[in-house]
TrEMBL record:
Belongs to the 'phage' integrase family. Residues 260-460 form the Tyr recombinase domain. Keywords: DNA integration, DNA recombination, DNA-binding. PANTHER family: INTEGRASE_RECOMBINASE PROTEIN MJ0367-RELATED, PHAGE INTEGRASE-RELATED. This is DUF6538 domain-containing protein. It comes from Thioclava arctica. SUPFAM superfamilies: DNA breaking-rejoining enzymes.
């Protein structure tokens, strides 16, 4: 708990907040009855507490984010508990029957078995013959229904658990975080309802909540891609006669593209950035310089190994390919890119670092933790903005857009530009053959690079 404001006898506290180093974290105990909602994939353990970074060192902002998480969790837990007040728990019903040496449908298959009468006499409320039959609780009714052969109700949590058991869940920590955000939102809307009660209105509300919170169309699409496969698994594996409510949803404004288009850099702006990188001359600036004259994606560059850099070749180049640290966005992203201009300078400097990777400063210090380019992206974009090198709409990915324009300006064939940037080519014929040679790619890339002595003479 952190003191947000204090004056005399008045003190304003912010709960579930902890300062670790210079960063604030959210810490909160998870009540035992809702821990199953936070079970990590591929494990049977349920967390006794939640502890994660709020990714800010500003106290007021940390309190705002903590309050948002607290409200979300309160709503999630409330929905789950209210559902269990009015509906029986299938897992509890199955455990009750198993304890009495009974199985689902036993009363239907062996109606004369005395074990059934003994169980019902013990389990159901007793009453005299002249008294009205007592009303059964939701749990009691569900247990009896399953005993007499009714289908076992399967919940959203059942579908999620089976989805993970089948190995279909997220494969790394970033994926887990993305899944948790999407899944928690769904449970806020529905609670842990049975799959056959999930409907189209729930799915539309899921999209509405995201849009109302300012989430862009492509991000909405990613949220849906986390939830939809789990529901599909539940429907298929539990043999339910229903369609997936999350199939074919309309995402508002999706055809308009991203809400925050990335602007390109002018050549003058690019020159200033590259010169600043030379002046600072460290690993982070080498990465920016390499991005500026290769047009590669951030993860592709900072995940390079030194064995992917060929400075002694007749034409220096990097080989962008998957490794144990990171994969690639698409199959066509694997490629060789000539090193020219500031990219060549940066590669030479980076090869002097220690270790197998070209940029060790971006590798996780704890080897058990996954590689995350998001942290590097935030830090490098912040440096660009803090040094007035990037205007609103500009950032690291703008180098990629800028390179595309630079290649257009020197009349680079479209299929060759695609090859350099790892963009998808259209047409079956483009997949035939070995593709463009390094010599051809270098010839066009040299056209877009201005020698530094030329810049000094022009003063631009």
């Amino acid at each position: 708990m952190i003191v947000l404001f204090e004056s005399g006898s008045f003190r304003l506290m912010c709960k579930h907040l902890q300062l670790k180093g210079k960063t604030y974290y959210y810490r909160r105990r998870v009540p035992s009855d809702v821990r199953k909602l936070h079970k990590a994939p591929n494990t049977r353990k349920t967390p006794a507490q939640l502890f994660f970074s709020l990714k800010t060192s500003d106290k007021a902002e940390a309190c705002r984010r903590a309050d948002s998480h607290t409200r979300r969790l309160d709503a999630l837990w409330k929905a789950y508990r209210e559902r269990h007040e009015t509906e029986g728990n299938a897992q509890l019903a199955l455990a009750t029957l198993e304890a009495a040496s009974l199985k689902p449908g036993h009363a239907k298959l062996q109606p004369d078995d005395p074990t059934i009468d003994n169980f019902l006499s013990y389990y159901l409320p007793s009453h005299e013959p002249y008294e009205p039959r007592p009303t059964l609780t939701a749990q009691e009714q569900l247990t009896v229904d399953i005993l007499y052969g009714e289908k076992i109700p399967r919940t959203l949590s059942d579908a999620k658990e089976l989805h993970f058991e089948l190995g279909k869940g997220p494969k790394n920590r970033v994926g887990e975080q993305q899944f948790d955000r999407a899944w928690n939102l769904l449970l806020e809307i529905t609670g842990d309802i049975t799959l056959d009660n999930l409907n189209r209105e729930h799915a539309r509300e899921f999209v509405r909540r995201l849009v109302d919170n300012g989430v862009g169309p492509e991000t909405v699409k990613r949220y849906l891609s986390q939830v939809r496969p789990v529901i599909r698994t539940g429907i298929q594996e539990f043999e339910l006669s229903m369609t997936n409510p999350f199939d074919g949803l309309t995402i508002p404004n999706r055809d308009e593209g991203p809400r925050k288009p990335r602007d390109t850099y002018s050549m003058a702006e690019l020159d200033v950035i590259q010169e600043k990188c030379r002046q600072t001359d460290d690993q982070r600036r080498w990465a920016i310089a390499m991005l500026s004259d290769t047009g590669a994606r951030l993860a592709e560059v900072i995940g390079l190994k030194k064995g992917d850099v060929f400075l002694d070749a007749a034409l220096p180049y990097i080989y962008i390919r998957p490794n144990e640290l990171r994969g690639l966005k698409t199959k066509g992203s694997e490629r060789k890119v000539p090193l020219v201009g500031e990219a060549l300078w940066a590669a030479k400097r980076a090869m002097e670092t220690k270790g197998d990777f070209l940029f060790p400063c971006f590798q996780p210090k704890d080897t058990s933790k996954p590689f995350n380019s998001g942290t590097a992206s935030s830090a490098l974009n912040k440096w660009l903005k803090d040094n007035n090198l990037a205007k609103p709409g500009q950032g690291l990915h703008s180098f990629r857009h800028t390179l595309r324009d630079r290649l257009r300006d020197v009349e680079t064939p479209s299929d060759l530009s695609n090859r350099i940037g790892g963009w998808t080519n259209d047409g079956v014929g483009e997949s035939y053959g070995q593709g463009h040679s390094l010599e051809t790619m270098q010839r066009y890339m040299l056209k877009i690079v201005r020698p530094k002595d030329q810049l000094a003479e022009s003063g631009s």
